[in-house]
Amino acid sequence: MKKFFYRSFITIFIILLLIITYLSTIGINTNIFNSNISKKIKEFDKNLNIEINKIFIILDPLKFKIKLKTVGTNLKYDKETIQLENIKSDVSLKSLLNKEFSIKKVNISTKSIEINGLIKFLRLVQKNPKYYIAEKAIKRGYLIADIDIEFDDNGNLKDNYKIKGVVKDGKINILKRNRLEAINFIFEVKKNKFQLNDLYLKIENENLELPETIIEKKNNKYFVSGKLLNNQITLTENRISDYVNLEDINFRIKEIIFSSENNFNFTINNKFKIKDLIIRSKVNLVNLEIGNSLDLKNFFPEIEKKFFLKNNQLEINYKKDNLNILGSGNVFFQKKPDKIEYKIIKNKDNINFNTKLYIKDNNLKFDLLNFEKKDKSNLKLEIKGEHKINKGFLFSKINLIENKNSILINDLFLSHDNKIDNVKNITLNYQDQDKLKNNIQINKKNKNYFIIGDSLNINRIIDNLIDSKNKKKYNLFKNDFKINIKIDQTYLDQKNIIKNLKGYLIYSDNEIYESKLESSFSNNKKIRFTINTDNGEKITTLYTDIAKPFVDRYKFIKGFEEGNLDFYSTKKNNISNSILKIDNFKVQEVPILAKLLTLASLQGIADLLTGEGIRFTDFEMKFSNQNKLMKIEEMYAIGPAISILLDGYIEKDKLISLRGTLVPATTINRTISSIPLVGKILVGKKVGEGVFGVSFKIKGPPKDLKTNVNPIKTLTPRFITRTLEKIKKN
Predict the structure, then answer these.
(1) 728 within 8 A of 673, measured Cβ to Cβ
(2) Which of the 8 DSSP states describes residue 604?
(3) Below-50 pLDDT ranges, the chain
(4) Is residue 60 part of a domain?
(5) Which of 3, 166, 188, 303 is deepest in the core (most CB within 10 A)?
């Protein structure tokens, strides 16, 4: 009996062990749980059905539970189906013995699901408009996922679910021209957290990589953070215009080539608006091509039609209306590269900037200051300031340094329409192209400016004032102001120096309203310049005991010597009437006059004009200017050898028309002597043998003048009258 009991016990134990081993390793198929699982699924939605084949059961004796696994299961809602690879779950043996159904954990693995099909399925389950938007945007893609969920003792779903998976070959259309293609990534979803890893995609055939992106939900907000990498991307002008409006700026971006590494984070609120965006980027700017529509030849003599930034390294940080850009590299304004460093900080409506330009192999000049960088010298130009949106620019410092040369401007403010509103201080200390030293300061006190210094070369300034091409109104200044001037030594040119220049200029409406300047040459010869405005009429005067520094600027006159100059002009309603007088001077060559003399066979006088020179005792010209038309009412010159009288007009860049009379002095003497009483008084009793001279006409475009010359036997009464006036005066 005892043996039978032991044998029975051992047999039962072995059988149970074999059963447990079989159930633990191979398991069995059953459909006993199908109805319970279907019932549980319908608790979520009564229209949601599950198709389950037989369930595999495997025993876990150590944890006192069984593991369930289905293969080839489908979820159905209406006509839409989601195919599942398998479903795994754990069931407590205790709950089974107590005749309870208790599924603790469920793991669902899907087959490769078309994403659009999944979205359609979700639209049926949850009537949410966001699924409709997603269905329209997502054009292609496949998803494989593993879903882990748990239930509590009451059969309620816990919130510690986990979803892992992979998306392959996705395609999304955000806008018509912005397509995201070849989207591949790994994802993991937990409660209030969504993580993407190894995300690769293409935008307009450009590859982007996001190694990690995390989305967390807190207090009904979504917090997004991640990292974006892109290899070299090329954007042309057409593609850039899709993102940026380029119509209203002077610089047109033609092409950008760059690669970058970007860290970002932002918040999405319950209205799906992006807030609190933070971006930290490192950018390798391979090439930035900018079209240039500005005329900067006065600064960059060999300026190109396109600018380039090449091989620039940038650090870009953005946070809530604050943008910081720090960069350096090569810049091409001209043919050869220069070095540039820049820092830009944008804070709401203000942009602070600090730019340093290092120039060695290129040229740089400031035409009005007669400054030009020397070949191969090292020049540094620093511009620091602030742009106040809709208000203007404040240049706190503009500093140019080249060896011992320096130009410094402090606190220059430009209004929103780019006019000079204010400047605190300007210091000039440099040697110019004429190898002359310039050393002055411009300081503002109250509303007045003071120019003081040791020396200043105004050669180029005078050229610009005389040059007819520059006789237009420059709207440079925002306000009216007064300049007081006191300079020890002022260069009119390399050879002519004036001492102790002092006086003032008053600017009103971007013109000199009033002026009084006085100075003297080294031999105590005087020079004065005045402007007075009264009732809309401007009166300008210039007197100098030495005319040469001013007459020499007219290149068609050569060998001008001696003489004084007196200029008087009135201007009203944009019409000016002027008188120019020069006395006691001589010229060596006047090409047009020499040609007239040669044509008239007055070769002796022609030789004088190309030799030692011919003297004039008086020169006077009355003329008027309106817009581009200059009318010469009369130009008269008289001298011991020759006298000239002419009139006509000059239409700028279009037409010249002059006519007049040219007479040798001997003919004048004979003619005057033949006039009763007057001739005896002026030239004695000598009687002339007849009158001889030439009349001439000059007409045509400036580069194609035609000259006609005819001998004359009789002088015009006008010529005789003007000659008599001059003779009486002398």
Answers:
(1) no
(2) H
(3) 248, 468-470, 603, 605-606, 608, 666-691
(4) yes
(5) 303
